[in-house]
Specification:
The complex is a heterodimer of chains A (626) and B (252).
Chain A lengths: L2 H11 L5 H21 L11 H31 L2 H9 L4 H41 L12 H28 L2 H6 L13 H22 L6 H5 L3 H32 L5 H5 L1 H6 L1 H39 L4 E3 L2 H13 L4 E16 L2 E3 L2 E4 L3 E7 L6 E5 L8 E3 L3 E6 L3 E10 L6 H4 L4 E5 H7 L5 E9 L5 H11 L6 H44 L1 H9 L4 H38 L5 H31 L2
Parallel strand pairs in A: 5-10, 6-9
Antiparallel strand pairs in A: 1-11, 2-5, 2-8, 2-11, 3-4, 3-7, 6-10, 8-9
Chain B lengths: L1 E12 L5 E12 L3 E5 L6 H8 L7 E6 L2 E2 L5 H11 E4 L11 H11 L4 H15 L14 H13 L5 E5 L7 H18 L2 E5 L3 H4 L4 E6 L2 E7 L5 H14 L8
Parallel strand pairs in B: 3-8, 3-9, 6-7, 7-8
Antiparallel strand pairs in B: 1-2, 1-4, 4-5, 9-10
Helix pairs in contact in B: 3-5, 4-5, 5-6
The chains are: A alpha+beta (626), B alpha/beta (252).
Chain lengths: 626, 252
């Protein structure tokens, strides 16, 4: 039996230890291949697609690429760590590091070739399946077909190659850094050598929390105090830096600070839960800090991306309401008349709704102001009549999509000039009403009394919208044909909706696909980490069992540890994402928190499914130790 | 002819807080000798073995094996030296659980690309001498601790190295398995003329050697030879020496 054969046999026998590694590799390849296939599928991504989809798809694939490489390297690190004893033995019988590296290379080639082929085959089916699910979920009305994309294959092969080289390099560094003696003793090292709390630790612990808090503060004040930074595009990066580094310091020092204080307080009287939970976590705080930060950042990005998608969708639904409030919308009175006549002729029932507005010169506006800046916003104000109003009282409305940097001040006055000059006092804000986009250009609108409206209006500044609703929707096709004859540019509501749905659908699809991949990646990383720790601590569990503790005694500590490992990064991630979403909503002018909460709850649920699996698996391992 | 020559060997651990593990050690080992290194806990036994066997570096002095100064060898040459000239037996067996007994034993031969016939022959010889010939197709998890340790010993002997280093080879075995293994080692030492250097704290194990080097606080305290004495007398001598050093003595 030659040495290469022994290597392969060794790998084959070890396969159940590497199961998780293989699974993550396979999953990564499937995800990446599916995603790039979609990216290069013509019906999704063509020249007519919105810029956001094209950009989103390419940014998404780069993101996915980086994520996968980091993820695989993390998995590989744990994988080679399991084998330090074996490497020591090989060096003892006279292999050089290069020999071992060659051996690893043979192994990895075998692994990569098998998972690569399998991953690509599954990826073809996977992309079909995902697309099917996505199109059902998002009511995609465009017909999509996916074929095998050579470009996707090329990119996937590139990913595999990159990961392969980096993993070999990582293994090389791992071997290079450790002497034979170090390899033999590797698993017995502990990281917390100092029991005392050092000044530096206190400092960085506090700094971590302060940095995160400050990052959040900038995020909420992006368009307030830090407006100048935001306009130069620096504040997002500052926030990113503060929150990521802050999270690391938090995990690295703040947590260890808390645990050390607890340990100090207990003064040697440790319970079984302490042994399984706190001692084990302190034992590997440095490593923990890094992986917890990675997980927190990945989760934060995922939740943010998903929030971004849902907010955008909600927003575009609002836009849709204003774009096409009725089945057919005419801005010319003559065309509307013609259309109605034709409908009558064809015995199609309909109802009408007419909007009228004027856009008057702004003289002074104290109601709509820029934040921290009392100057009025625009040169013109849009005014509509409201029959319930009397005198110069006014209501401000159409504020649902108002950008966050604008501020509405109630009980202030606004002076406009139409046929004559008039000052109105705005006493109320009506958030619900939405007016057609053509009249308002999405700006807030002031409702005034009919009498005042008539006093101001002239033909020049007057704008009308004639909306027509078809009573029986089976007549829509016919009606649309008629409308097209009168004005080819008229788009019926259904058509606008279709267009919007497909754009939105793809956006949601791309983001939720990315979100899903990242969620799985984060879940896998943390699961692998948990299993790695449990296996490292088998000896501890064995000792504990021998000195008379039962499985049940250890259960609580194990549960707490898993809650800590999974929960802490999740909390940080959700906080990060919440503040990112708040900042984003300010930009978009959306105030509904429902989509964000839904995203976060769903994310947390799936995430906890991973925690549960980890718990069950760890528990089983402990049960098996005698 | 001496196969191992140690001159003024010192080993210092740590940078800020220095700890002298070995201090000016001098001795030599003849070809075919069976030497035991003894001493109380913390006297530097294992450190000495690690340094002699090239898996740890030395701070000063020299270790010359078969004419080569090992502290001057490059990594590749060191690997070559370990491959051809050394065999290791450890307390915790260190057999790969993923390979069968036969594969574990033949590992050093596979690495050196021996041809098949030669491999089979060496395997035959060494497993018969150690009494594990029937276990070839079993996995380590299917055999006893004593058998695993004999597998490790077989692996150390199979490529006929010049020196075999054993670190507490009987440490994890019961007394019967331990005696069994030591008898086998003694026999191997006689039949193959391999030099064996064994670290142990067990006087029974040490009494199988021809010579005992006693360490204390990082330097050689004394040396005793079996000479013409019987194993039992040699054992008594070792016990006496050990108790004079303040170690824990157990008289049978």
């Amino acid at each position: 039996m030659s040495f290469n054969q022994i290597t392969l046999k060794n790998l084959k026998m070890n396969i159940k230890h590497y199961g998780m590694y293989l699974f993550s590799l396979l999953l990564s390849i499937i995800l990446y291949f599916s995603f790039t296939t979609l990216q290069f599928t013509d019906s999704i991504n063509n020249d007519q697609s919105l810029a956001i989809i094209r950009k989103g798809a390419s940014v998404g694939s780069i993101f996915l690429f980086i994520m996968i490489v980091i993820f695989l390297m993390y998995a590989n690190h744990l994988f080679i760590k399991r084998r330090t004893q074996e490497f020591a033995l090989f060096q003892l019988i006279g292999l050089t590091r290069n020999n071992i590296l060659r051996m690893l290379c043979v192994e990895q080639i075998a692994i990569f070739v098998i998972t690569g082929l399998l991953g690509i085959v599954l990826g073809i089916f996977g992309s079909q399946f995902l697309l099917y699910v996505a199109s059902k979920l998002m009511h995609l009305t465009v017909k999509l077909s996916i074929n095998f994309e050579p470009m996707a294959l090329a990119l996937t092969l590139f990913l595999i190659l990159t990961a392969f080289i980096l993993i070999l390099f990582q293994s090389y560094l791992f071997l290079k850094k450790r002497s034979i003696l170090a390899l033999m003793k590797d698993r017995r090292q502990t990281e917390t050598t100092k029991v005392k709390i050092t000044f530096l630790e206190v400092l960085s612990g506090i700094l971590g929390i302060v940095m995160i808090a400050f990052g959040y503060y900038i995020a909420t004040e992006m368009f307030g105090t830090f407006k100048k930074l935001t306009f130069t595009m620096t504040s997002p990066f500052i926030i990113l830096f503060l929150t990521v580094v802050g999270a690391y310091l938090f995990f690295r020092s703040s947590v260890s600070l808390i645990f050390k204080s607890l340990k100090h307080f207990k003064n040697g009287h440790v319970s079984i839960t302490d042994v399984v939970f706190t001692a084990s976590i302190m034992h590997r705080m440095k490593k923990n800090a890094m992986s917890l930060t990675v997980i927190a950042v990945i989760s934060a990005i995922t939740v943010t991306v998903l929030c971004f998608a849902t907010i955008t969708q909600e927003n575009s639904n609002n836009t849709f309401q204003t774009m096409s409030p009725q089945d057919f919308d005419f801005s010319s009175k003559k065309q509307a008349q013609q259309f109605k006549q034709q409908l009558d002729k064809n015995h199609i029932g309909y109802s009408t709704k007419t909007y009228e507005s004027i856009s008057a010169e702004t003289i002074e506006d104290k109601v709509m102001t820029l934040k921290d800046d009392s100057k009025s916003m625009s040169a013109k104000n849009v005014l509509v009549p409201n029959d319930q109003l009397k005198g110069t009282n006014a209501i401000i409305t159409n504020t649902k999509n108002t950008p966050g940097m604008m501020q509405i001040n109630l009980n202030k006055t606004v002076t406009v000039e139409g046929k004559q000059q008039q000052t109105f006092k705005v006493t109320k804000e009506d958030k619900e009403t939405m007016l057609p986009l053509d009249l308002t250009t999405n700006m807030p609108v002031i409702e005034i009394s009919r009498a005042e409206f008539n006093k101001l209006k002239t033909n020049d500044i007057m704008q009308n919208m004639y909306g027509i609703n078809i009573k029986d929707h089976t007549d829509m096709k016919k009606a649309a044909a008629i409308a097209k004859q009168i004005n080819p540019e008229i788009q019926p509501r259904d058509e606008v909706k279709k267009l919007l749905d497909s754009t939105n659908g793809i956006l949601i699809f791309v983001t939720s696909f990315l979100g899903l991949s990242f969620l799985i990646a984060a879940g896998c990383i943390i699961y692998i980490k948990q299993m790695d720790e449990t296996e490292d601590e088998i000896d501890n569990f064995r000792i504990l069992k021998r000195i008379g503790f039962t499985q049940m005694d250890m259960l609580k500590g194990l549960g707490l540890k898993i809650i800590f490992n999974f929960g802490l990064p999740l909390i940080i991630a959700l906080l990060h994402a919440l503040f990112a979403a708040i900042a984003f909503m300010k930009l978009m002018g959306n105030v509904s928190y429902t989509p964000i909460i839904v995203v976060m709850v769903v994310y947390s649920l799936v995430y906890f499914a991973f925690a549960l699996i980890a718990f069950i698996h760890s528990n089983r391992i402990i049960k098996k130790t005698i | 002819m001496s196969i191992l020559q140690v001159d003024h060997l010192s080993k210092i651990y740590g940078k800020k807080k220095q700890y002298q593990a070995l201090n000016d050690i001098n001795f030599s080992v003849e070809k075919g000798e069976f030497v035991a290194i003894m001493g109380p806990s913390g006297s530097g036994k294992t450190t000495l073995l690690n340094v002699l066997s090239s898996i740890d570096t030395i701070s000063s002095g020299s270790v010359i094996v078969d004419g080569h100064n090992i502290s001057q060898l490059k990594n590749k040459q060191l690997a070559q030296y370990r491959k051809k000239s050394l065999g290791f037996i450890f307390q915790d067996y260190s057999v790969l659980p993923t390979l069968t007994v036969k594969e574990n034993i033949m590992l050093p031969l596979s690495v050196q690309h021996y041809d098949k016939k030669e491999m089979e022959q060496s395997y035959q010889e060494v497993t018969e001498a150690l009494g594990i010939h029937d276990l070839g197709n079993k996995y380590p998890s299917e055999i006893s601790g004593g058998q695993q340790q004999r597998t490790a010993a077989a692996r150390a002997f199979v490529h006929k190295p010049k020196i075999i280093f054993a670190d507490e080879p009987t440490g994890a075995l019961d007394s019967k398995s331990a005696k069994d293994l030591l008898n086998r080692l003694e026999e191997m030492n006689r039949t193959f003329q391999s030099t064996i250097i064994m670290v142990t704290h067990d006087p029974v194990a040490a009494s199988f050697a021809k010579r005992v080097i006693m360490l204390k606080d990082g330097h050689i305290h004394s040396e005793i030879n079996q000479g013409e004495d019987s194993k039992h007398d040699f054992y008594q001598n070792i016990i006496q020496l050990q108790s004079s050093l303040g170690g824990v003595a157990n008289v049978i």
